[in-house]
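Morning run. Coffee first, then this:
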Amino acid sequence: RRWFRDTSLPLNTKNGAHEYGSALWLHYLTKRLNSVVVVRSLWEQIVQEPALSAMKTTLQNSPYNLPFAQALQEFYTWCYFTNYRADEVEYFAEGADYPSVQYETTQILSEKVSFAGTLSPLAAEYYRFIRTAQEVQGNLQIASDPGRFGLTGIAYNQNDEYFVRNGYGLAPVLLPRQTRQDTVVFVVVHGSLPPSGAISNDYELQLTLGEQIDLDDALEPPFPNPFRPRNGTILRVPYRVKQATTVETIIFSEEGRVVRKEKSRTRLPAGSYEFVWDGEDDTGQLVPSGVYVLRLIAGSFGASTKIVVINR
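And here it is:
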């Protein structure tokens, strides 16, 4: 329980208690990658380099191809979905038995606000807000090397289901408006490996209601990736458009064959959206294991991202 009360302690903290809770990291990895072998791979890599560097090397290389910073941001997102918010399919299998995370603040959000904080590598802080029926945009201001940080926004959609938005570095995170008052949570994650004599970094979390700041077209990393549709998992690919437009998504096999193609029926207003894929091609069949490319076209904006599919 102590671990969930202080996530601002780095994952590798040794104080006689925190290191036991940090075993959650391996629970995340084995379920996220659908492999207990990853733990053995970590141990084998530790022979070659220090433990944290070994983790980064193992995750970012084949067969996992999971950037360490992305993994850490996902991990702290999973830590939000515990207790009464538990989702044993998408997140921790025993999440209902875990306590809830502790927030840095809980307050009503009625105007533009900012919060200054200091965060060590491998740590995270959670902010909870009650908002009126307006969209909320969060972004981080980091004095140096902003790429070390990630920002996750968590809210409800119109069907009262949770949805997650991720941003990296200085990229804003937009949570669309609800038709009524609801609760939103922002998670600040310091995703870099600590240097010798771990250094904390200052940040400023800025929140804006009812407007968008520097909202550019963007295609964000897919989640989860690698993607295992045979397990019933759904792939989500967040994206943003800065002006109203139709959106087309095409998934190509590694050989360049189109396996799935979708196009919005109407023009989508400016804002944040999510492409969802169940791993099936246009005929309704699960695609085989392999590397696929998702191409998104929104007006004059076009971007691509790779998806690793594992079906075995």
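The chain has a mean pLDDT of 87. Good start to the day.
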